[in-house]
Amino acid sequence: MINKKVNSVTEALQGIENNMTIMLGGFGLCGIPENSIAELVKKETTGLTCISNNAGVDDFGLGLLLQKRQIKKMISSYVGENAEFERQMLSGELDVELTPQGTLAEKCRAAQAGIPAFFTPAGYGTEVAEGKETREFNGKMHVMELAYKADFSIVKAWKGDEAGNLIFKGTARNFNACMAGAGKITIAEVEELLPVGSLDPNQIHIPGILVQRIFKGEKFEKRIEQRTVRKK
C-alpha cells in the first residue's frame, strides 16, 4: 500500500504557489486545518482563491490570511463573524462569491465524485442564478451549478493512517468530508497519525484513495467561536 505520510506541514504544502485555488475544510473554527493555514501565512503565498464555508474570525483561521492580504477571492456561504472580511468586501479589496451553503457543499462533493455539473432549485430567481443555465424538472425550476476546480484541497481529520484513510470527530467532519479528493491534490492534517491497519475499516469516513499527502499537526488550539454556557 502506498505510504502518503510526509514529515512536516512545510513538506505537505510544497507546490502551493501564488494565484492558486485552494479548498479549506472546516466550519468557522471547527475542524479547520490550523497548521496548514499558519504555514500559508508563513509562506506569504498571495493571490489565493479560497473555497471555504467562511473565513473564520479576525485573528484566527483564514482571518490570518485576510489580515496579510494573501486572499484575492473568497468563495463562501457565510461571512458574519469576520470584521476584516466585511471591510475588504465592502471596500472592493476582496472579490467575494457568496454561494448557498448546500450548493457549496454539493459543488465540492461533485468535484470529489468527478461529476462536472448538477441542477439545484436553490438560488433560482435570485442573483445566484444570473448567467447560469436553468431547466425545469417536475414542474420546478432549477439552476445548473458547475463543480469546483481547485488546485489543492486541505482538510483536517481526527485520526488518519499512513495510507491516507481518515476519521473525523463529531461536527468537525463538516466540509472536510466533501472536500477530500475534490482538489487535484488533497492534503490531510491529522491529530493522530497511525500505521496502516490501525484503523477499523468500518469506522473510516474517507478512504486513502482520495488523499495524496498526510501529516501529523504539531499544535491544535481548537478555539471556540461562540462560547455559550447555561446560567447558574
From TrEMBL:
Sorted alphabetically, the keyword list is: Transferase
Q: Which family does it belong to?
A: Belongs to the 3-oxoacid CoA-transferase subunit A family.
Tell me which SMART domains the record gives.
CoA_trans
> Its domain of life?
Bacteria
Pfam families tied to this protein? CoA_trans
Q: Write down the species.
A: Flavobacterium sangjuense
The gene for this chain is scoA
What EC number(s) is this enzyme filed under? 2.8.3.5
Task: State the SUPFAM superfamilies in the record.
Answer: NagB/RpiA/CoA transferase-like (SSF100950)
Q: Name one GO molecular function term.
A: succinyl-CoA:3-oxo-acid CoA-transferase activity
Name the UniProt record assigns to this protein: Succinyl-CoA:3-ketoacid coenzyme A transferase subunit A
Alphabetized InterPro entries for the sequence: 3-oxoacid_CoA-transf_A, CoA_trans_fam_I, CoA_transf_BS, NagB/RpiA_transferase-like
Supply the PROSITE patterns for this chain: COA_TRANSF_1
Matching NCBIfam families: pcaI_scoA_fam
